[in-house]
Design a protein that fits this description.
The complex is a heterodimer of chains A (260) and B (253). With 260 residues, chain A is of the alpha/beta class. In chain A, 34% of the residues lie in helices and 23% in strands. In chain B, helix 2 packs antiparallel against helix 6 and helix 3 runs parallel beside helix 6. Chain B starts with 15 loop residues before the first helix and ends with a helix. The chains are: A alpha/beta (260), B mainly alpha (253).
Chain lengths: 260, 253
Amino acid sequence: MTTPAAPASLEVSGLAFAYPDGHQALFGVDFSIARGERVALLGPNGAGKTTLVLHLNGILTGGAGTVKVAGLPVGRKHMAEIRRRVGIVFQDPDDQLFMPTVREDVAFGPAAAGLKGAGLEARVDRALEQVGMAGFKDRPPHHLSFGQRRRVAVATVLAMEPEILVLDEPSSNLDPASRRELADILRSLDVTVLMVTHDLPYALELCPRALILSEGVIAADGRTGDLLADEDLMRAHRLELPFGFDPRSVKTSTKISTPE
Amino acid sequence: MGAGHAHRLYRHGHSPVHALPPHTKLAAVFAFVVVVVSTPRAAMWAFALYAVLLATVAAAARVPAGFLLKRLLIEIPFVAFAVLMPFVAQGERVDVLGLSLSVNGLWGAWNVLAKGTLGVAASVLLASTTELRELLLGLQRLKLPPLLVQIASFMIRYGDVITDEMRRMRIARESRGFEAKGVRHWGVLAKSAGALFIRSYERGERVHLAMVSRGYAGSMPVIDEVTASRAQWSYALALPVTALAVCLLGWTL
C-alpha cells in the first residue's frame, strides 16, 4: 500500500490505562490503521481488548497516551464528532438496538447529530440497504432473528457514516449461514474496519492484517496468515485454531495488502 | 412472528380514527373522561348519550362491539367494590326483591359503574386504534416529561427481553430439579428475582454505553415529528365537545 495522502483512520500511541480499582489493563499500546484497511484484533480473554475499544470513542479516558481518529485527537473537545466517526458494534445486539422499531434505531445516531426529515430518511434507507435489511424498517428489533439483529446493529452504525467501523465479536452466536452473510456485507463496505474476535478463521477470511493484543501490549502485528501459522506465537498468547484448521491451506480470496 | 408492534390491545385497521394523530386522540380521550366524571349522577339519560357517542366512535373506527365488550371485562375487579355499596352504605333504605338496600349506596354504585365503564370503554377504543409506539410519540408531543416517555419506551422494548431471561432462569431451576411448592421455596424465588434485577441493571449499563457511543447526550433526538392539522384536531375534539354539551345540559335540566 502506498503512503496515503489522507491521515490514518486510527492512530493509537502510548496508550496506557488502569481502572480505578488499580487493575492495569493497557501498558502502552501503539498501532495505526490506514484508511480502508480491515484489521483483526486478536487476543485471549482479559488481554484488554474491550478496554482498548472503549478508548477509541472516548468512553474511557484519563490514562496516558493518545488516540487519533482521522487526525482528530479523542478528547472532551471533539467528543460528538469522535463518536460520529467511530462506529462501535457491540457484541449483544439487544444492547445495541434499544428503540421500538428498526427504522428509529438506525435513525438514532444521525438524528442525535442533528439530521432531520428527508436527509435522515435517505440515510436510514441507505444503511439498511447496505446490510440487506431494507424490508424490515418498521419491525421491532426483538421480533428479528439473531443474525438479522446483528446486521441491523451494523446498519445503526453505518448510518452515521463513520470513518472506522469497530466490531466486537461480530461472528459470535451466528449460525454458519448468517456468519457468511455478515462476512459478505463487511467485505462489500468501503470503510476502515477493526474487528475484535476470537474467531480466527473469520479473521483470516476478512482481514489481511492482524494485531495480537496480549497482557496490555501489542505482541504482534502482521499478515493474518503469517501470524496464525506461527505456532510458537499462537501458543504464547493462548490463541488456538479450531480442530483441523490449517491457515496455510486456506487461499484467501481477498487482496492481500501488507501493512506499512 | 408478529407483524409490527402488534400488541394484543391494538386492532389493526385503516379507519379515519386510526389515521388521527396520536396526541389529538390522547387529548380527546382525556377531556372526554373529565367531562363524564363531572356529570351529575342523577342525569341517567346523559350517560346513555355518552354511550351512544362512544358507539359512534367505535363504528367509525370499525371496532366490532364484541371486541370492545370483551376488552371491557378488565373493569370487573375495579367495580366489584361498587356492587357491595348498596349493602353496606347507611341512610334511607328500600326493599328490592326482599333485600333491604341503601338508596345512597345504590346511587353510589351506579355512579362508579357508569363512569368507570365509560372511561374504560374510551381507553379501550384509544388502545385499539393507536399503536403503543404512536401513543409514546403522542405523549412526547403533549410535553410529558421526556424522562417518563423514555422510561415507557424502554419498558416496551425490553419487556420481552427480560421475560425471556426470566423464562430461561425458570427452566434452569427446573432442570436441576427445583419446583416451587410452598413457603419454604420462596427464598429461592426471591434470590432469582434479585439476580434478574442485577442482570437487568447491568444490561441497562450496557445499553447506556451503546447509546452514548452513538451520540446520546441526555435527550432523545426527535425522529418522527407528529403534527396535526386544524381539521384533525376538530375531528378528534368533536367527541369531548359533544360530551361537554350533554354534561352542561345535565347540570341545567
